[in-house]
Amino acid sequence: MAKKKRKWYKVTCPKVFGTRELGEIVSNEPKNIIGRVLTVNAKELTGDFKKSHISIKLIIKELSGDTALTEVKGYEVSRGYLQRFIHKGLSSIDIIHDLETSDKHRIRVRCMATANGKVQTTKKKLLREKFIKELEKVMNNMTLDNIIFISTTNKIQKTLSNRLKKTHPLRFVEIRKIKVLERSAPEAKKANA
Description:
The protein is α+β, with helices and mostly antiparallel strands.
């Protein structure tokens, strides 16, 4: 039995990042490419060197001829970058929350905030509760692609920081990680259209 010839496919980034070519991937079976996960540095997607501490996970969703089309699977900030903002004299507050995007994807968002001095436990609890409310206000009306894209621009982080400063002034707010827990079914998208 003859071996199938290997073929190269161009990989493109999602529309929100401009549908540019990221590179090529090889396979002897086109169906083996679907579902592959790629981790890409945000500076490659945005062209901004300042975003090199962010990794974005993409999953190949379909083939269009010789082109592999991707969609966003996750977002993560490097641990080394975050450690620069945690040091003596600061209180760190971690927030983990699951929510649904406007395009019906279930995601888990992990955030981190720092404040000057020692923040009391009751104040931390209040901050977490308000942080979650503001996070939902900001993200529930956005699609998954927009959440990932705008997170790379730091706009969500600045918005959260500004809205929470009345409760307690925050020195640093960062979205550490966004993970897709459950994608919306294509049938559900059609029904909602």
